Description:
The structure holds four protein chains of four kinds.
Chain A lengths: L21 E6 L2 E7 L8 H5 L4 H9 L8 H13 L3 H4 L2 H29 L3 H22 L8 E2 L2 E2 L7 H24 L2 H7 L7 H6 L4 H5 L7 H4 L20 H25 L15 E9 L2 E9 L5 E7 L1 H7 L1 H5 L4 H10 L10 E5 L5 E4 H24 L1
Parallel strand pairs in A: 1-8
Antiparallel strand pairs in A: 1-2, 3-4, 5-6, 6-7, 8-9
Chain B lengths: L1 H10 L3 E8 L2 E6 L4 H11 L3 E10 L2 E10 L4 E9 L6 E3 L8 H12 L2 E3 L27
Parallel strand pairs in B: 2-5, 6-7
Antiparallel strand pairs in B: 1-2, 3-4, 4-5
Chain D lengths: L1 H9 L2 E6 L5 H10 L11 E2 L8 E5 L7 H10 L5 E5 H6 L21 E3 L6 H18 L1
Parallel strand pairs in D: 1-2, 1-3, 3-4, 4-5
Helix pairs in contact in D: 1-5, 2-5
Amino acid sequence: MSHKVIVPIGPYHPLQDEPEFFRLYVEGEKVVDIDIIIGYNHRGIEKLAESKHFDQVAFLVERICGICSSSHPYAYVLAVEDILGQEVNVVPERALYIRTIVDELQRIHSHLLWLGLAGHFIGYNTVWMWAWKYREPVLDMFEMITGNRNNYAMFKVGGVRRDIGEEDVPILKKTLDELVPAIDMFHGAVMDDPVIQARLKNVGVLTKEQAIDWCVLGPTARASGLNIDIRKDEPYGVCNRLDWKVIIEKDGDIFAKTKVRILELYESVRIIRQCLDRMPKGPIDADIKDVPAGEGIGRVEAPRGECFHYIKTDGTNRPVRHKIRAPSFMNVASNKVAAVGGTISDATITLAAVDPCYCCTERVIVLNKQDNRKVMNGWDLIKLSQEKTNKLKEELKDGRTK
Amino acid sequence: MDMRDKIKERLDKKIIAWEEKSAKRIYFSVAKEEIFQTVKFLFRELGLRFVIASGMQTPTGFEILYHFSDDSTGVIYSVRIRLEDKEHPQVESITPLFPAAEWIEREMWEMLGINFRGHPNLKRLLLAEDWPQGQYPLRQDHES
Amino acid sequence: MKLLFSYLIFPGFLFSAVIGLLAGWFDRKVTARIQWRVGPPWHQNFTDIIKLLGKETIVPEGARLTFLLSPYLGLLALILASAILGEAIFFPTPGFIGDLIVVIYLLAIPAIALIIGASSSANPLASVGASREIKLLLGYELPFILAIITIIVKANGGIKLEDILNHQSSYGSSIFSLSGAIAFIVALLCIQAKLGFVPFDIAEADQEIMAGTMIEYSGLPLAVFKLTKAILITVTILFLIVLFLGKDLSPLFLILKFVMILVIIILIKNTNPRLRIDQALKFFWGPVTAMALVALFLAVKGL
Amino acid sequence: MDFRLKALTKSIWVFHVSAGSCNNCDIEIFDCLTPRFDVERFGIQLVGSVRHADALLVTGIINRKALPRVKKIYEQAPKPCVVVAIGQCALSQHMFRFGYNAPEPLDKILPVDVYIPGCPPKPEAIIDGIVKLVNKVRQKK
């Protein structure tokens, strides 16, 4: 859906009062109710898609969300190929491999980005800087393969636009090898840091039943024990030919979500390595000329969950109806349950746990229940959550020293 | 194949059309009044996950597709209903069944003007406050 | 004339402002270095101030007169404080009786000025910032004064800066004694809060939206506030040196001690996230005050 | 007056306004802060309050819901204030121009000083844009 959840005005909300993205109703410390107002980023992409022909829509769809700009075009291309018959026999072999490589690389860069921001929200700015420092080589890889750091324009109905040259493969492998120790460092830093554990354990919990009721997707669902991963359920590209495993956690709190995302980084690296070894030579595009009338559904596992595209065509070269649904549409709605009940200092990290667009979580405004007077806002909540980390650190220190 | 048989055997007379486009895509249409029961059956009993509902304007009126995904096999079941009434299309809201549907129904109400009876808080989701009342952007007649 | 000179030029306004801005730059540079960043050039803080002078000042309607006056209040107080301290350190002229007490009060005024300024700007966020500043002020004033009393007791009752300095030159800096060391730690934490550096900057700078109490200020008043904060850094560190490391204040040792304290403060700043206001208060009234009392008790015992 | 303008060019405080953007440009702006492109060495700081801002970084098409708020922000920023349009959406509303929710492009709403094209513009491009802005301010004095 094009109505990506986005933040109204500037990640730093200006002085005057206007509808914020999250409006937390608070009594004292406890979050009582949450009111989510979206629509500030509504650009009417679905309507625009109806006025563009099939090749142009791929570019339009790519600019829905900045961080997962390879999932939407992939899902759109799959939807159109669904009309033409199965993706496997439409798209040449090598293109399938390239698609999977780009998709997994983009998952790495998106998870690293989230890791940095999550660290920022609980008070470790150095984690933010380091995570984004290790993200830069991944963006360099994108620049090498596709020419641009974010919007790749790689996907095309029936294949891929650019090929991965022979000389790029070793560089890609070297970067991945350098990335693994960095992920180990983050894995170690997050897993056994007592303060982070104390800070993220059983915070913003989403139980399995709630996850089912709210139909959440991706890491948010997998952290609550739901075994949903489109790459396994409805394999696309070469996902079913490679061996990797879906990461499932049970307790549904933010710690589980962080763990799922970090372990997925390892899986993505493994997938890309296998793809690079097994990539055959051959054409990369089946240049489809026309699309017959019909309906098609395309689904892809984006870093945040299932990206869903539905296309209805009537034989002309323009889609009649193009329904887009991004994973955050469902995940963010589930914040109503996850954030309520927690303290306001945990609110920011809870809202960030579903990993919506990065600036969505900074425009939170806290009004106390009775007279709706503005008590705190976005950055203040970040301060609160950072302070809570510090308090836990003291307790743990005293705990150890006592 | 058992999932298909379960659906067929349970809803047999209610299903108007059944089309298996491919192994993973099944579309079947149901009468407008039956949608609440069908969705309840698919979601509660069969445990299918509600993916999204997509509404569109067709020459004969409006059409809503409720997409359900069976994650164990990866098959998508899309339930289609047709609303002939052009001026005031309306249908039973499924938000009471599960809260996930709240946003998408608000969006369809805002964009296509389909009214959802029984929706807890049917108010504007995406369009700006000063958007003219009667205008529905996703309708065919509305300029892009 | 000489008085004017000592107030405005040497130990007073200009000298401490320059030192303060340089210390601020040093802090930003070290923080950037920790995050593998390059950090700003040395003249960065000076340029910020000059730029702010050139900016237009916006007064929100509904803001009262004190909105514009409060920054100058803090600045004047600090100029006096730096002059007195400077006198004691550089020219051993006999200071007036009780100049230690005067300096303590002068150090508290900038925080009060900030509170007045913030609450007079008609912005709800600033008023919340001001209320937190008051709580913080209450938090660290008590242990701070207790630590200073410890020093007075050690210098057998001398309230003049000069007595404290003489006492230390004869008996060695008070930091080497047990009570002096504890009092030093307490005073250091209080200075950290007074300066509003990270662990305790809940009230001041980037509380609400990286603006907190100074949310409504722009142009000249904002420049004055930044200047006040820079001078505050110099004055508080000089104050610590006089109280705890007053052995010999030859220029070389003075710079060394100044940099040492600055490095300690920056390390505290970079190693932990911010404290929530109620945690900060509990922290100050709990352990810090206890330490201050222990130091006082030891000092009385003559240790 | 010129030495103040000269000082302005040495320490630009930036306020980020995202009006209907797809986040790519917002992330690239944040990328400028991270170790590889650290802009703090030019004295550029990201500030939280409009009152402290010298430059407004506007990203995204100004959709109908965000339009009134962008105007309000510009009024609140103390002059001399510079508006930098980052990303193709802010320049010409890119491919969303005919959308029903994008009434008018940025330069019809605010006086824009620097346009930084690109979707998303690379951090190097943003820094280059800021350098051009600095030269423009120097000439103007």
